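Final report, section 2: Outcomes. Of the targets proposed, Glutamine-dependent NAD(+) synthetase is the one most frequently requested by collaborating groups, and we therefore present its record in full.
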Amino acid sequence: MAQLRIALAQSNPAVGDLAANTDRLVEWTRRAADRGAHLVVFTEMFLTGYPVEDLVLRTSFVEASIAAIEEAARRLDEAGLGEIPVVVGYVDRARLAPRVGQPKGAPLDAAALLHRGQVVVKTAKHHLPNYGVFDEYRYFVRGDRLPIFRLHGVDVAIAVCEDLWQEGGPVAVVAEAGAGLLVVPNASPYEREKDDVRLALVARRAREAGCALAYVNQVGGQDELVFDGDSVVVSASGELVARAARFSEELLITDLELPEARYGGLGTFQVEAGDGTVITVERLELSARPVEPYEPQAPTIAEHLDDTAEVYSALVLAVRDYVAKNGFRSVILGLSGGIDSALTATIASDAIGPDRVHVVLMPSRYSSDHSVSDAQELVDRQGINARTVPIADIVSGFEKEIELSGLAAENLQARVRGMILMGLSNEHGHLVLTTGNKSELATGYSTLYGDSAGGFAPIKDVLKTLVWELSRWRNAQAGRSGEFLHGFAVPPIPESSIEKEPSAELRPDQRDTDSLPEYDILDRLLDDYVEKDMGSAELVAAGHDPALVTRVIRLVDLAEYKRRQYPPGPKITPKNFGRDRRLPITNRWRETTT
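The predicted structure is given below as tokens.
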């Protein structure tokens, strides 16, 4: 057996910032070297960030990526780090003749091995995901190589992300080609409870490949996607050896005992991949002699997060990175005293600090006294910046010039509030956060250019019942992280905001249940219709009330045009309102229960 100390760089690149990402690669490699690592593995498309979407169709961007990978190799060598092999993802191109249906320039979702100032070997993702948020047939052509490099007497193979999730391809070839370690750079977005699925998959692939497997995943927010890290190392038997924390950057250092290389021959040969393709295995040698025996470090296994904690962590990270990566200094939102705005403000405070959170209390003639007092109490508890702008006179000014009634009059109030927030955003440079939840967006319970006006929507993918759950969970954490006021643990959200009946307060005595069913009933139906794509007959068969099925389906279908105009927000479910779910706005298909 031979020893290797590997470093998995679970870091947070910025899309398109090749220079900063290269700087980070050098910095993190130095940190790994200082801790005695023999190999450093970065994430999928680390140098370019992921996903880069249509940037890969620009020749200038791909050329910059190729130049960056060569520059990174040189910089590592110049920094005295050239002896440490580094695996890192970037965008390359295949040398293919143009043809109809092939992405412009034939880009590759590639990974390179950097050593002694050179790009020693390149590979690319073989399986291209084309489901959910992924459109990789649009962007990339398929790779067909499996590099295996010998490092200190151990054969190390490289595969990329989706190649782990699909049958056949490079991972299936590893068992036949022989390797002691398989390293897999990933950019795998967060979804609820995905960590359990991911670990089981990694363990199964390690057993199939017959070798240890090191899975390094990106962390950070990128528009509507959140990457949760959760990098893992498992043994050849699938046993968990080491695991990084979730939703934070970490350099995971792990010592492994691995079998010495069994194959003497170098060069290339081809293997049937089990998916109808042929993979070219490319063997090369960096160092044949094992390292001198050393005392291994104890591996680290991060604490498991429960479901509510992981969702809240994902939302906080998404807001933090959207603000930082888009150059905002502060955020602003309307604070009504209700639970949705209360949770949104709390997430923002946790993400960027209460001193950078601004809220506006905008009471109308229909706002209850307790709503105003609840909003003010949240401000006092959290120490965020607040101002009050009553809207009754502003609304009256509109009403003097144009006669509106019913829903139109209600929506006018929401639009006045949206106008105030956008005006303050323009004046002070704040990012406007919208406060609508997934239940509201699903049923169209939002006002265009009113409560939908803004730049980012933190709870866009959070059903109303989960809003309450997250709020209670966050309050339960008070005091555990040093949140005290006058010596007492202070929950950040007033209990009355959580307990009171939801209301938009746009007319006298209004309640959400005037136009919507109870949220626990509604959310179960929405989960089946939106998340699981059940038709009306399936919904009835699943136990939902037929009349309610008809009513809710109609609400959801008719609100598609509103959702298209809603700001982006973090994806936490398998099917968010965004890239996951793409339905035509002009659409005459209607589900029927018979």
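Residues 323 and 329 are 7 Å apart (CA to CA).
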